[in-house]
């Protein structure tokens, strides 16, 4: 009987214990694969998330919040700034390009972002639309590829937005106001009824303003895939603001040079409730926080690796104890010590390799199943079919653990005399 057939029969003879060992290895490997793919996706998404815009101007507050909302469409904006800030930035000779951004509304949970169409040509080099054409009039929109795919939007479709950055916010607010109005009526007051009227007018303003899909963006592999874009003046049109009341959320700035970026930050930072933030610095702070979380996950991974190694060791110790007499017979029939040693180490490697392959498949399958949810919620775009250099370390590490775990029981059987093995 060949060595491989003998090893396979021994593994199948102890199906339950072998299955538990395979599961321990597979779960550990799948967890590590998901961690590697997620961390790489966060790093790559962070690097290309803001394009050439090294500076962003917005309302005073958290720089990280400003950058995440502006470029990654995560969280709420820090507030609004005067429209005059845009003109002031464009007049500065240190500025190569500057674009105003307005936000604050959503369509079914996806942010509606007002920005000049020149933003796409500056950032993506004039990439063509997947279909349709760029917006030209107030109410026209172009839709990110992920939004179009998720909601089934096509060129020519119309829809109404909602206030806020979370789906259903208006409905919840309306329900709360309605409840407050009912309580006010019971108490004989009229203040809540007035508030409800204001809320209803705001809600009707959004419902009456209809957007039209003019085009659909190609897949950009950035957070812009999950946003709806329109003209800057959409918010002013929805709320009927006069020219004196018009404000913007942020200004995206592409400096002409690094020195120009420094001068711009000094000029705008801290004046009249306005701040200027280095985009790369804010993103680095987010990545540092992610790295700290990765260290914690790394500790948990190390524990999982240790437990998987122990599972392999226990499986082979049990196998060696069960097959002591069988090994003695093999030795008496003339099989060498090397044959006995190889039979146990091969069994450990076979179980480990099975768990390794299962874990790799499970990890990538999990990444495929989670990619839409992660991208929708956090803008993290996992590439489930990507093979990273870390994968080779996972493969070599798993096989090394399987081999080391099998050496102890194999060496014990190797050293014993065949008569001692048989008598035991």
List keywords for this structure.
424 residues, alpha+beta, eleven-stranded mixed beta sheet, 61% helix, elongated
Task: Describe it.
- This protein has 424 residues and is of the alpha+beta class.
- The chain has two domains: 3-45 and 293-423, no CATH class; 50-285, no CATH class.
- It is 61% helix and 14% strand.
- It is built from 15 helices and 13 strands.
- It has helices at 3-13, 15-47, 63-71, 84-91, 118-124, 145-151, 169-187, 191-208, 234-239, 258-268, 279-322, 324-332, 337-378, 389-415, 418-423, and strands at 55-59, 81-82, 95-107, 110-115, 131-132, 140-143, 158-160, 162-163, 210-216, 228-230, 247-248, 250-255, 274-278.
- The strands form two sheets. Strands 1, 3, 4, 5, 6, 7, 8, 9, 10, 12 and 13 form an eleven-stranded mixed beta sheet that branches. A two-stranded antiparallel ribbon has the order 2-11.
- α2 packs antiparallel against α14 and α11 runs parallel beside α14.
- It is elongated, with a radius of gyration of 31 Å.
- Residues 168-202 have low confidence and may be disordered.
- This is Putative hemin transport system permease protein HrtB.
């Amino acid at each position: 009987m060949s060595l491989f057939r003998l090893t396979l029969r021994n593994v199948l003879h102890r199906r339950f214990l072998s299955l538990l060992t395979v599961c321990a290895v597979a779960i550990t490997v799948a967890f590590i694969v998901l961690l590697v793919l997620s961390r790489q996706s966060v790093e790559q998404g962070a690097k290309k998330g803001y394009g050439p815009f090294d500076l962003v101007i917005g309302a005073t507050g958290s720089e990280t919040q400003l950058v995440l909302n502006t470029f990654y469409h995560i969280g709420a904006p820090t507030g609004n700034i005067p429209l005059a800030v845009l003109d002031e930035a464009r007049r500065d000779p240190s500025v190569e390009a500057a674009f105003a951004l307005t936000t604050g509304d959503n369509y079914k949970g996806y942010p509606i972002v007002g920005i000049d169409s020149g933003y796409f040509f500056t950032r993506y080099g004039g990439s063509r639309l997947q279909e349709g054409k760029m917006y030209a009039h107030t109410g026209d929109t172009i839709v990110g590829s992920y939004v179009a795919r998720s909601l089934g939007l096509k060129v020519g479709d119309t829809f109404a937005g909602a206030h806020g950055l979370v789906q259903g916010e208006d409905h919840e607010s309306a329900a709360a106001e309605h409840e407050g109005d009912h309580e006010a009526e019971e108490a004989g007051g009229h203040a809540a009824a007035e508030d409800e009227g204001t809320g209803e007018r705001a809600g009707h303003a959004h419902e009456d303003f209809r957007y039209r899909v003019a085009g659909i963006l190609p897949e950009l592999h950035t957070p812009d895939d999950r946003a709806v874009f329109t003209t800057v003046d959409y918010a002013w049109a929805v709320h009927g603001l006069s020219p004196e009341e018009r404000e913007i959320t942020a200004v995206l700035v592409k400096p002409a040079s690094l020195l120009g970026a420094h001068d711009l930050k000094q000029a705008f930072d801290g004046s009249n409730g306005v701040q200027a933030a280095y985009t790369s610095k804010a993103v680095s702070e987010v990545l540092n926080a992610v790295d700290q979380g990765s260290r914690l996950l790394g500790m948990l991974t190390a524990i999982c690796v240790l437990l998987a190694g122990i599972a392999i060791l226990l499986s082979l110790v049990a196998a060696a104890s069960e097959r002591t007499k069988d090994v003695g017979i093999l030795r008496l029939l003339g099989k060498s010590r090397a044959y006995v040693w190889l039979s146990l180490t091969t069994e450990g490697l076979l179980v480990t390799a099975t768990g390794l392959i299962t874990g790799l498949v499970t990890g990538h399958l999990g990444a495929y199943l989670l990619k839409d949810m992660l991208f929708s919620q956090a803008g993290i775009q996992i590439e489930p079919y990507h093979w990273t250099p870390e994968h080779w370390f996972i493969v070599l590490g798993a096989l090394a653990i399987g081999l080391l775990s099998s050496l102890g029981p194999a060496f014990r059987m190797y050293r014993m005399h065949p008569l001692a093995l048989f008598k035991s």
